[in-house]
Amino acid sequence: MSRFLDQRITLDCTGLRCPLPILRFRKAMQTIVAGQQIALLSDDPNTHRDFADFCAAAGHRLLDVTEEKTGWRFLVEAGCAAETGEE
């Protein structure tokens, strides 16, 4: 098992508007291994609306969505595409 799987990354995209949170998330996913978890923080309503579809299309698993005072927290497990940077 990779030591990277134990490391959870948090990507704070609060204050950014669509499509920047998803674009930054996509770029971050290219630097991690499949199975690793990453949390995306966003206060953009469009990210909340579109993020689940993006994860499904990219081969990542959306584990949890939590509404917080400052927006939403999306917890994602990287799919196979994370290892190659392809989607």
Structural write-up:
The chain is an alpha+beta fold and 87 residues long. 32% of the residues lie in helices and 29% in strands. The chain is built from 3 helices and 4 strands. The protein has helices at residues 20-29, 45-58, 81-84; strands at 9-12, 37-42, 61-68, 71-77. Strands 1-2-4-3 form a 4-stranded mixed β-sheet, covered by helices on one side. It is globular. The two termini are 23 Å apart. Residues 83-87 have low confidence and may be disordered.
Strands ordered across the widest β-sheet: 1-2-4-3
Mean pLDDT: 87
Number of beta-strand segments? 4
> How many helix segments?
3
Choose one word for the global shape. globular
- Helix-strand pattern: EHEHEEH
Largest sheet: 4 strands, mixed
**Percent of sequence in beta strands:** 25-35%
Keywords:
87 residues, alpha+beta, 4-stranded mixed β-sheet, disordered C terminus
Question: Could you give a quick summary of the protein structure above?
Answer:
The chain has 87 residues and is an alpha+beta fold. It contains 3 helices and 4 strands; from the N terminus they run βαβαββα. Strand 1, helix 1 (20-29) and strand 2 (37-42) form a beta-alpha-beta unit.
